[in-house]
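Provenance

Sequences were taken from public entries as deposited. Structures were produced by running a predictor on each sequence independently, with no templates supplied. The record for PLP-dependent transferase from Rariglobus hedericola is shown for reference.
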Amino acid sequence: MSVFTHIPLGQRIPASLHGVSASLPTMRDVIGYEEKDPEVTQHMTSGYPRFVVHPFAKKAGAHLLRTLGLAGNAIWLTSSIRAAEQLRIHLGEPAALLPTTAALTGVTFPEDATLSSRAKTFLQHSGMFLSSREAEDYLLRVGELTADQAQVEKGFDGYAPANVKGHVARFYQHASASDVFLATSGMNALAASFRVAADLQRPLGRTRWLQLGWLYLDTIAILQKFTDTPAEDYLYQSNVFDLAALKQLFIEQGSRIAGLITEVPTNPLIQTPDLAAIAALCREYGVLLIIDPTVASPLNIDVLPHADLVANSLTKYTAGEGDVILGAVVVNPQGSFAAEFRTRLPHALEPVYSRDIARLASQIGDAPALMAQINRTTPAVVEFLRTHPRIKELYWSLHPDSRENYLKIARSPDAIGSMISFVVDMPVAKFYDRLRLPKGPSFGMKNTLICPFIYLAHYDLVTSEDGRATLAASGLHPELLRLSIGSEPAEDIIATLAEALAD
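Predicted structure for PLP-dependent transferase:
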């Protein structure tokens, strides 16, 4: 019998007011969540912060509309006045900035579903939503929240930004704290890296951007939407292992390519390219290389010497409690544009909120021990799944296609990370609904966590014939499940999986 229990629909994972995940215990719930079925959404107390507006942010927005006399308007709160101005420009008329007398920043406009959708998508891609802790503090100040309704958290004794930067620099090993720049999320780190690199390359006639491998959906969105001329400047190579095709692309277009963005390993197929060969090509052709190592973590892999910039979600692994969203950009001090990056990044990244950085500082020191535990557990779970007759496809960092490339950058042969993706040879709903593991988006926390990743990230593709063809062309099965191993004992995780896979 599994020691895990089903978590009710919509309950936060972990059970914190600022938990970054939320339970979707059945496939019907997943589909209802994606289709905005009120029968499902009414139970969602929260969700991943870049996709679901936190209840505190909603309440703060409603309070501002009342006190500013803006009834009948929509409001979108942002992480800074700079973010609000970018959002206002993106939306155009009739969007307007909140008045300077308001204690928070954002934009308002007459209620309009299309504009609201555009606002949410822009903030999601750029990672510029208001922090839930900042919203909480605002509500406490204005009397909309009482002290017993707020989150009680472990404090941090010291200067939190320096603490976090110091830890991150040590995780990367080739950087100093002055090479580390904090962001409101991993996505804000990636978006800012892209903008700064694009600005540096544009005067050189380089405007094209290459996506190598199937990447996280908002990274794809940035490249598809925010290059100078997306129809011409967005390039995609799905096969991360095809160096010959990459070389040919650089021969044909290398003088026009500004940068290459990839994940190492990729999400969710956990594929690792020959990073040294790719970096050498980029240097030869003057192409900037931006790497996202979040899936495995810089605790496990050494990528900075190959990159110009590394954009990393600190929400994963370094915030193992799963209750804070933050990110970082790390500059390769040996990179050709290192000085320019250090100058420009502070003006491109969003300011982090003091309580968020303090919360991260209170737990980042636990990250190496958490990762060590995860690295001990993952191989046992992989071996169970690899030999189970109901597992049709299985991906992890040491998959035969990636093993050699991954071990070249692994900090040790045992540094394999938490991520396992697989496809079951049975109805996915039968397996998923029976499974007692925590089920929701995100990864890299003390809690083991599983989700039907393609349904959550690319529901539009799952639900159309053309979309499924697009997924298939990139080697993605629509019913792929993404499992992130946590700190629980391996035997408990395996027993839970076995229970759900049984006849």
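The chain has three domains: 12-43+367-501, 55-149, 160-362.
The chain has 21 helices and 16 strands.
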